Amino acid sequence: MxxxxxxxxxxxxxxxxxxxxxxxDIETFEPDVEESGDRTVVSLQxxxxxxxxxxxxxxxxxxxxxSAVAELPDDAEVEVVGHTDxxxxxxxxxxLSTQRARSVAEVIETERGDLTLDVSGKGESEPVEPNxxxxxxxxxxxxxxRRVELRYAS
Length: 154
What we know:
This protein has 154 residues and is an alpha+beta fold. The chain has a single domain (31-153), classed as CATH 3.30.1330.60. The chain is 33% helix and 23% strand. The chain has helices at 3-9, 46-49, 59-69, 90-111, 139-145, and strands at 32-36, 39-45, 77-83, 116-121, 132-133, 136-137, 147-153. A five-stranded mixed sheet has the order 1-2-7-3-4. A two-stranded antiparallel ribbon has the order 5-6.
């Protein structure tokens, strides 16, 4: 095609004016750490680590887990314990909590080969908050119950 034929095919378009948007602040991932006597429990909220009903960590979640275990004592024995809320069957929740604990443990093993890990899932059997209040759903409580805990001697 000749240059003049191409030029005949050109049309001008109006480009709309772009408007800036406000991006909300993104909170950094901070695990809950509770020390009681000679035990420390680091609680990782699974809503940050996993998509709903899944046990595969996102890449940013892997980074968060790696960061969370960086300060654990050398050669510590660590329990990696998965928990769920009460949505779904007991069997499904047990399976999901164990799978999530294993996913977290895999990252820990990669990051901290010196740690001895004991991996388990508790399903919905050890809630930290009620899943229901007065017969009504308690979304805030269920959110706190979806977690993977790292337990070790202080």
